[in-house]
Specification:
Layout lengths: L1 E2 L8 H11 L2 H20 L4 E5 L3 H15 L4 E5 L6 H9 L4 E3 L8 E5 L11 H13 L2 E5 L21 E5 L17 E5 L9 E3 L14 H4 L1 E5 L4 H14 L3 E5 L10 E3 L11 E6 L7 H12 L4 E3 L1 H6 L10 E3 L3 H8 L6 H12 L2 E4 L4 E4 L5 E4 L11 H14 L4 H19 L5 H11 L1
Parallel strand pairs: 2-3, 2-5, 3-4, 5-6, 6-7, 7-8, 9-18, 10-11, 10-13, 11-12, 13-14, 14-15, 15-16
Antiparallel strand pairs: 1-8, 16-17, 17-18
Helix pairs in contact: 2-3, 3-4, 7-12, 7-14, 12-13, 12-14, 13-14
Length: 449
């Protein structure tokens, strides 16, 4: 079982193409089933395993896993919803010499392996099958999904039939979008990869720990990065973003607007039209607390005309023309409502929506949420999943904007800066634990660095 950080993300179609390019589908099924059996033995101890097998190749993987467990001397039973319907699944079923219990009458076991339906599901599960799946999962101590929890799509995070919440999902050969995208991802539990030797290529990857550059003996505050935060109607939000930029590693942060108070390391000046002409400014962050009146519009226009690298967040996204030409590197940080307002509503997957938005506006897009998607105009995508649910609080987006400004001002290219900021933000939330507020999140940025 391999952690998925940094690994490619494949859709159902690209996964099928990778399998066909490999050529030996029977060997792939043997590898997949053996990998599932190895993981189950490692986690089950001496406990009995019940494998639920569906009619397709996912069920075939389950039959192979059951055979491998039996050969290893591990107690294992098999239950099936229907007879196998593919040649590979029938061949795998033929190698299982034990009984196959009907799903409806199967007895529970402490360890449950879900091999009912995997990649490519396009319709809901039979209601009776789903009921017995839930019954058996509720009685199990540990539920392991093979490839994907049965009931979710592969490519867009949709749930066609609500599955039980699995403890572990074993991604076969590659990570799929629904391992990461909500709401499907919440049912997957921990996701680990079983390597099938496919070496798939993809421009989409799972976020991985960035290679942060620490200061050296020749570093000074401006070479670490100067960030300018443009304040507005609600200075608390821009101050929060300013402090986040400091905590994330910026050497100098200038808050332009109203507001007083600590920390004393934050430089404060009133807003002026010439405030952004300082050539040492490495990034401008605008939007947190900006407001949406004429004053806000004027400040946004000044920031856009400054030629400085930009992080555009919050209120500024509602004032922005997404199709206007860009004169500087730009990162947009919309949530779902803001991306609807900027680029129109769509039923496409979150990955596809972020990719289209980045290409259309010629910017890097951080499409925020529990499944944050970062997209570049050249189609590169990275996805950060499993964010803390406690990030659903006022000000946490302002913290991300400030951290993004710090990463951009440090000299990282926009896509890498966005990725580093999202990773920092997620890890800071993990350090905070439960019931934290945005101010706590700011402090945790320093601990993560």
């Amino acid at each position: 079982m391999i952690p998925i950080d940094g690994h490619p993300i494949l859709t159902a179609a690209t996964m099928r193409a990778a399998e066909q390019a490999h050529g030996n589908l029977s060997a792939l099924m043997a590898q997949a089933g053996a990998g599932v059996a190895t993981a189950a033995r490692r986690l089950a101890g001496a406990s009995e395993v019940l494998v639920l097998c569906g009619p397709g190749n996912n069920g075939g993987d389950g039959y192979v896993a059951a055979v491998e467990l039996h050969v290893a001397g591990h107690p294992v039973r098999v239950a099936a919803a229907t007879e196998p319907r593919t040649d590979l699944a029938r061949a795998a079923r033929a190698r299982w010499t034990g009984p196959v219990e009907p799903l409806a009458t199967a007895r529970p076991a402490p360890i449950l392996i879900d091999a009912l339906f995997g990649t490519g599901l396009s319709r809901p599960l039979d209601a009776v099958h789903a009921m017995h799946f839930h019954r058996l999962a509720a009685a199990a101590r540990l539920t392991i999904a093979v490839d994907l929890p049965s009931g979710v799509t592969t490519d867009d995070g949709r749930v066609l039939t609500e599955p039980p919440r699995c403890h572990l999902t074993l991604a076969l050969g590659a990570v799929k979008p629904s391992h990461l995208l909500q709401p499907a991802a919440r049912y997957a539990g921990h996701v680990r990869l079983i390597d099938l030797g496919l070496s798939p290529a993809s421009v989409a990857t799972v976020i991985a720990r960035p290679a942060f550059r620490d200061p050296g003996p020749d570093t000074h505050k401006y070479s670490r990065g100067m960030v300018a935060l443009v304040g507005g109607a609600m200075p608390g939000a821009s101050e929060l973003a300013s402090i986040a930029a400091l905590r994330a590693g910026a050497g100098y942060v200038l808050h332009l607007g109203d507001g007083t108070g600590p920390p004393h390391a934050l430089v404060r000046r009133p807003w002026s039209a010439g405030a952004l002409t300082d050539p040492r400014i490495g990034a401008v962050v605008i939007g947190p607390g900006l407001g949406r009146d004429d004053t806000a519009r004027d400040r946004l226009a000044t920031a856009l005309a400054s030629g400085r690298p930009l992080v555009i967040d919050g209120d500024a996204l509602h004032l922005l023309d997404a199709d206007a030409p860009r004169s500087a590197q730009t990162i947009l940080t919309p949530h779902a409502g803001e991306i609807d307002a900027l680029f129109g509503k769509s039923t496409a997957s979150k990955i596809d929506r972020a990719r289209v938005a980045a290409a259309r506006a010629d910017v890097v897009v951080i499409f925020k949420g529990p499944d944050t998607v970062i997209a570049a105009p050249d189609s590169r995508v990275t996805v950060s999943a499993d964010a803390s649910d406690w990030l659903s609080a006022a000000g946490t987006g302002d913290v991300l904007a400030g951290a993004t400004g710090a990463m951009l001002a440090s000299g990282l290219p926009p896509f890498e800066a966005a990725t580093a900021a999202v990773w920092l933000h997620r890890e800071a939330a993990r350090l905070c634990g439960r019931s934290f507020i945005a101010d706590d999140l700011v402090g945790a940025l320093s601990r993560v660095r």
